[in-house]
Amino acid sequence: MNLAWEEAFFQSRCSDKTGDVLRIWRNRNAVVIGVFQKASEEVNLEYAQQIKAGVVRRFTGGGAVYHDLGNINFALSVKPVGRKVNVDYLYVDLLKGVVKALEKLGFNPSVQNVNDIIIGDRKVVGVAASLRREQNCGFIHGAMLYNVNLDVLAGILKIPLKKLADKGVSSVKYRVTNISALKPELRVEDIVKALIESFTETLDKKGWYPDLPKQHEIEMAERLYSSKYSTPEWNMERKRPEW
């Protein structure tokens, strides 16, 4: 359902039924794979079943991500005025919102491989994006490692050995780290506040306000969930049912 909300807000923004939307959320025990990935190649499905972790496909590209309640997820749907939405806008301009948030929290982050944000030599955020050129709207979302169980993460994700070797490490859990391990005093609330402030500044907004989903967004999310994100055809085989 969380992935259905992501797409519903993006579609709503692209059709001008709502303004720019920032959503921050957490999810229990799941693996989210990229739209082009094959679940069996990216996820230890037997282990996922043992720990009752869901496997769901998002509508953006990128790699597989493990979620638990130690993960802080953010999603931004925008339609800028006077600015063309392209790949640079998504992965340079909008990504600055996440970088600024980490800077506000006292870190010195940097972007690596276009869509990874690292602190030191450890990855703390992974980002994926989508755009609709004909409607000039963009979407970026990501997962921030706050206090994720890295042992479960290492066991449930299948990371190609070559990818690990290129980084000089032997296990995925040594490529990433938790923000709580770097600064134990930081609370979830501190990170949420920093993300909101930084994206507001990045978009040059005068302010922000909390809101509830509109009725058409609720209906769209429910339809996307029932016909797409809850189906094995989409999640495991990448076959999109008609709806």
From TrEMBL:
GO biological process, one term: protein lipoylation
Membrane spanning residue stretches: none
Keyword check for Ligase: yes
Pfam families recorded: LplA-B_cat
Entry annotated with the keyword Transmembrane: no
CDD domains: LplA
GO cellular component: cytoplasm
Start and end residues of each BPL/LPL catalytic domain: 16-207
Pathway as given in its UniProt record: Protein modification; protein lipoylation via exogenous pathway; protein N(6)-(lipoyl)lysine from lipoate: step 2/2
UniProt keyword terms in alphabetical order: Ligase
UniProt GO molecular function: ligase activity; lipoyltransferase activity
InterPro entries: aa-tRNA-synth_II/BPL/LPL, BPL_LPL_catalytic, LipoylTrfase_LipoateP_Ligase
Protein name from the UniProt record: Lipoate--protein ligase family protein
Annotated organism of origin: Thermosphaera chiliense
